[in-house]
Amino acid sequence: MAAPCSRMVNRSLFRQFMTHVRRTGLKHAGVRLMSLSCVCRTATRSQSKPGSVASPWKLYGAVCLQRLPVISQERNPVEDRFAELMHQMELERSLLSEHEQRLLEEAERVRRKQADNYDSDEEEADYGGQETITAQDQEDTWEQNLKHFQPALRDRDVGVPALGSVERCLGDSLVLLVQQTVAKGNIWLLPQAQWEAGETLRQTAERGLASLPEADFKATFLGNTPCGVYKYKFPKDVQTEGCVGAKVFFFKALLSAGSAGQKEPFLWAKKTELQGYLKPAYLEKVNRFILDL
To answer: How far is CA 13 from CA 36, 40, 278, in A?
Structure first.
């Protein structure tokens, strides 16, 4: 019934338009007659302008907060052998440093003192008779300082839960996971929040990170464009006529500073550890934009 009614309305508008043209006395003027199909399209477009339709998907903004490596990673055996080779090549091709030249000069002075024709007056004239600290004395002092030097530990999470510390695995890139209630269970996810009218998806992700309890994370977001999206449908008993599922848009961010309470369900996981916490379908989407640097 919609199509015939639309044609009737369009023909009525066309007749009114032609009647108006005849009454204005422009019958013999150079007026171009309009096509009926053009008038029909214009009238249909003006009368049947669609309104805004609510989306059947709930929108969420999530943040992939990464803590970049703090120290270099441990070398494997091949890298150790290569480093030794490069050090040996550099040692063989390099020139003597000032300290090494000084060691040779002092060794030559000791050799002259032990000779039979040693002239102490000539030696004092060259060096002014001043008592100086030898290069060997400096090396002994450096060795003593090295013995008292204690290098920092590669892992600083001594005495605290391993996965809950931001200072674990300092040589690897870590991703923040939180335990949130979804449907009727608690699952591990990237921090997220539901979109609210009037805000951008990035603002939604920022709000999701800021709303974490007992956490004070300062993050630098890398742009306004999502780096990934995860879409899923709700169970049949949860779906409604206006909502069938959810879409989660991910934004990447780097940790600048901050910490979290150890009592809260937070953990910092490496990319290789995510499979033990995230659902397979969720993990498949997340692995696409997480770089294991």
So the answer is: 10, 9, 61
Rounded Cα gap, residues 172 and 292, in angstroms: 8
**Which residue segments constitute the domains of the chain, with CATH numbers given?**
2-47 (no CATH), 57-71+163-286 (3.90.79.10)
Tell me if 80 sits within 8 A of 269, measured CB to CB: no
Local structure of 207: helix, strand or coil: helix
pLDDT, tens digit (0-9, with 9 covering 90-100), for 232-285: 888 877 777 778 888 999 999 999 887 665 556 888 889 998 999 999 999 999
- What's the pTM value of the predicted model, to 2 decimals? 0.64
Q: 3-state DSSP call for residue 241?
A: coil
DSSP character string of 47-85: HS-------SEEEEEEEEEEE--SSPPPPPHHHHHHHHH
Contact by Cβ (8 Å): 180, 192: yes
